[in-house]
Amino acid sequence: MPDDAPRRRLRAICLALPEAVEQEAWGDPTWRVRGRIFTMEKRGDGRVSAWMKAPPGAQEVLVAADPERFFVPPYVGPRGWIGLRLEDADWDLVVAHVATSYRLIAPKRLAALVSTER
Prior knowledge:
The protein is an alpha+beta fold. Helices cover 32% and strands 26% of the residues. It has one domain: Alpha-Beta Complex (Aspartate Aminotransferase, domain 1), CATH 3.90.1150.30.
């Protein structure tokens, strides 16, 4: 049985955002705002990770700076998304990246309600 603590923590972070909802897709939880995914939790490689949209150029910088923590996820990676491994995660960092992803995906009025400050 996998450790569900990272999923519970990620769920709490995501569902605290305005109008965020959880919906299962591809066998994993996704968090959405008005039908658009802003964060996915994945365990496909045996490691728990969160996949999120990142600003242009951020993916390359993050993966190069810390390849043990960040990676280019399959499928959505070519569109600039990042993967963030959640084992021994810096949860302040997770909060900041989830907030950034949310702001990039959400309608402008909702995005404006969320700070990306840690």
